[in-house]
């Protein structure tokens, strides 16, 4: 268990402390469950009603809310960002490996930086380069000539195929596969002819990838994930996709091949994005979106049908199937009602 003084919290968050800087905290808790020794935060004003009864040692909040709490208060610009920083400081999650396990299989010509850890039964193939402080979890496979930058960590059973390049300070959760073949085939008289995927995957710095996600290698050019991208669990990114700086993708999203997604986009869970299209910077797609065409203007986009009682949904579905017929009938009525031009 880690313990921090309130003075240390002020330094970590850049906030202004109103209270006793020598008091300590060791946990982060929701406001209504916080007890002595915990730190909490108020990021949504609708929860301000809990301030009067909050038993946390310190509350992180904005200046406008400070008068409503009479205990230790840490005034910050963004309480949710402050929470993230404090949670990092109190985090006790272990590393995925410590030192180099005797059962790890490491090629003689692999280049390992200082303080590298490799877990049990991991395989590091010929030509691999691992930067300083890299941690490879148990059962991982790192293919020929792949490289992983300093301070990056892979959890158990991650597979990194040949020649994949992963940058610095990346975090990849368990069972993710990076660099598998893209889905490329030609058809000759009903027979599928496999197209070798000759590109690779290039992942930038400070990228986080969730569990059981797959990122395919490019067919000719590379699949590219730029810096500061966060990718959730169980996402499929196909060959030759390019994802721009700072984009966030929620779980279950599928991106088809040769699609470009711009910078600072937010892709909601369960979204399906068609191939060979471009999405510009600053686009938000809400959950279950179906993107069939490129998006050329930033903004928020939605599709999908919200949940309805089954009887209502059946009616809606029936009407959707009749839209073409209804459109034809409407045009016919409009034609009858439109006065004919005088000759």
UniProtKB/TrEMBL annotation:
Its EC number is 2.3.1.191. One of its GO terms (cellular component) is membrane. Keywords: Acyltransferase, Lipid A biosynthesis, Lipid biosynthesis, Lipid metabolism, Repeat, Transferase. Residues 23-88 form the UDP-3-O-[3-hydroxymyristoyl] glucosamine N-acyltransferase non-repeat region domain. Pathway: Bacterial outer membrane biogenesis; LPS lipid A biosynthesis. Homotrimer. This is UDP-3-O-acylglucosamine N-acyltransferase. It comes from Vibrio amylolyticus.
């Amino acid at each position: 268990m880690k313990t921090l003084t309130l003075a240390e919290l002020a330094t970590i968050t850049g906030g202004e402390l109103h209270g006793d800087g020598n008091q300590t905290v060791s946990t982060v808790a929701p406001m209504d469950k916080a007890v002595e020794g915990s730190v909490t935060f108020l990021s949504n004003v609708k929860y301000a009603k809990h301030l009067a009864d909050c038993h946390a040692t310190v509350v992180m909040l904005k200046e406008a809310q400070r008068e409503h709490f009479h205990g230790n208060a840490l005034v910050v610009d963004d309480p949710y960002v402050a929470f993230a920083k404090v949670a990092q400081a109190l985090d006790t999650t272990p590393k995925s490996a410590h030192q180099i396990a005797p059962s790890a299989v490491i090629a003689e010509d692999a280049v390992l930086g200082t303080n590298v850890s490799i877990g049990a039964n991991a395989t590091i193939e010929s030509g691999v380069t691992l930067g300083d402080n890299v941690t490879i979890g148990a059962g991982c496979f790192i293919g020929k000539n792949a490289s992983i930058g300093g301070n990056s960590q892979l959890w158990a059973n991650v597979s990194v195929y040949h020649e994949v390049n992963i940058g610095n300070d990346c975090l990849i959760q368990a069972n993710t596969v990076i660099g598998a073949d893209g889905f490329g085939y030609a058809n000759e008289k009903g027979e599928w002819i496999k197209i070798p995927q000759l590109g690779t995957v290039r992942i930038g710095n400070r990228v986080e990838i969730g569990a059981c996600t797959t990122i395919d290698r490019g067919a000719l050019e590379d699949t590219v994930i730029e810096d500061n991208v966060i990718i959730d669990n169980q996402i499929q990114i196909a060959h030759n996709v390019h994802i721009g700086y700072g984009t966030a993708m929620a779980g279950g999203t599928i991106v088809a091949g040769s699609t470009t997604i711009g910078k600072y986009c937010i892709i909601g869970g369960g979204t399906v994005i068609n191939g060979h299209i471009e999405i510009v910077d600053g686009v938000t797609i809400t959950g279950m979106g179906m993107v069939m065409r490129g998006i050329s203007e930033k903004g928020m986009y939605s599709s999908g049908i919200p949940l309805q009682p089954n009887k209502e949904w059946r009616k809606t579905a029936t009407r959707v199937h009749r839209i073409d017929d209804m459109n034809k009938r409407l045009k016919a009525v409009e034609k009858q009602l439109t006065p004919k031009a005088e000759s």
